[in-house]
Amino acid sequence: MKKILTTPIKAEDLQDIRVGDVIYLTGTLVTCRDVCHRRLIELKRPIPYDLNGKAIFHAGPIVRKNGDKWEMVSVGPTTSMRMESFEREFIEQTGVKLVVGKGGMGPLTEEGCQKFKANICAACDFPGWLCGTGGNSSGRD
Asked: Quick one: which of 10, 44, 77, 121 has the fewest CB in 10 Å?
């Protein structure tokens, strides 16, 4: 089945998703790696962005300063299992509804998704620059 999700995502948007479904996401996707997870869970420091109903992507962005703004150049997924020890509590504390990553995750994340009505998805292969600012191929080889 094909499913289109738009942020903010509600619990009922995830109810009929099954293993093998293809998920398309529109809206905000926040990159969030182990440093972000540690900041919230281990260091008890707030994240300066409201993730309630949002989607996070276990990825490392490459950014550059362009004038007074930051520009996304490319995004590369990182192994999601690195966040396993944090993810259940992260889902609970942030209200994030969709976790997108590389590879699988473990029982703590599964428990968090079930209890707090969230879901995890595997990122398919794609050119990292597609996630760059603008998300188009103009001027790129």
From this structure: 44
Closest alpha carbon to 39 in 118, 94, 109, 115? 94
Q: Could you tell me if 128 and 107 are in contact, meaning their C-beta atoms sit under 8 angstroms apart?
A: no
- Domains of the chain in sequence order: 2-126 (3.20.130.10)
- Parallel, antiparallel, or unpaired for β 22-26 and 2-6? parallel
What does the pLDDT look like over 86-110, one tens digit per residue? Answer: 999 999 999 999 999 998 899 999 9
Q: Helix, strand or coil for residue 11?
A: helix
Cite the active site residues: 37
Question: Going by C-beta distance under 8 Å and a sequence separation of 6 or more, which residues neighbour residue 64?
Answer: 70, 71, 73
